[in-house]
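Standup notes
- DV: blocked on the single-chain target, sequence here:
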Amino acid sequence: MTKLAFTTAMSLLAMAATTQAETLRFAYAQNATPTVEAMQKFGELVAEKTNGAVTVTFFPDGQLGGERELVEMVQGGLLDMTKVSGGLMESFSPIYGVFSMPYLFNDEAHFYAAMDTPAVVDPIYSSTEGSGMVALTYYNSGARSFYTKDKPIMSVEDLKGLKIRVLQSPTLITMVEMLGAAPIAMSQAEVYTSIQQGVLDGAENNEFAITIARHGEVAKEYSYDMHSRIPDVVLISTATLNRLSEEYRAAVQEAARESTEFHKGVWGASVEAARKQSEDDFGVTFHYPDVAQFQAAVAPMYDALKDEPEKYAIFEAIRDVAGSQM
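- DV (later): unblocked, structure below
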């Protein structure tokens, strides 16, 4: 963030902080409609549950910076809350890396079941408490797949040598390397021009990257290899939690969980709408490769995970949830 941008951000935050003693300042980067709606629902629920004593002021669409900068501001107590990708959080707490493991979840039902299991998420959510923040809840961010400028990815061989944007996640970087591509970690805001100018051959994300970020204008081939389902997480500063009374803290935590349930209800229809818009408005073609060879190529990552006991315990808990669904 530039010095001018930082100064502007601090001025906006100061104005919000002086408006009301219990105003929560919640900033986020550009997001798909259902997630924006869920965050707004969170704000409504907080006000409702506290009879207006606690309100939420939003700073949307990267107004205060990108996801990494927003996490750092929450971490430092300069911002109360943010919503970011769980993939990015790996660089703040390594245990988050388990979410970026390829083909971790069998499907969306398994994803929801695991993410709603305290034994799975609580150790991850609390892992950053010592550095000034914790997670309150999650939102579905869909299945991540590869999309490219002009070449469908139908096999692992098709990825060889391609420059692919990934989140700033060591696990995702390793995955893309094992698939034979060259991973390039960068912020979402840089992807469009990087594909347009040939710096990137493509990226990996959900369908909303095609529409909300308008990547469909520069990338026309979307291949459903569905290599990961990385949740978004809602973070809150521990300084903010400590500032709130026990009653208001409970209200904020309850509102966060209820906003996740709201998000589940609107997510599916929004994904279908994004896919249709991708085809109709952007001329994107969707492909369905056989994922078995992708799974085989990244299988060694799970053998390596055994060397990281904390992550491996979470992985086993997630797989146990899958077993209980059968």
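- Follow-up: The CA atoms of residues 51 and 123 lie 32 Å apart.
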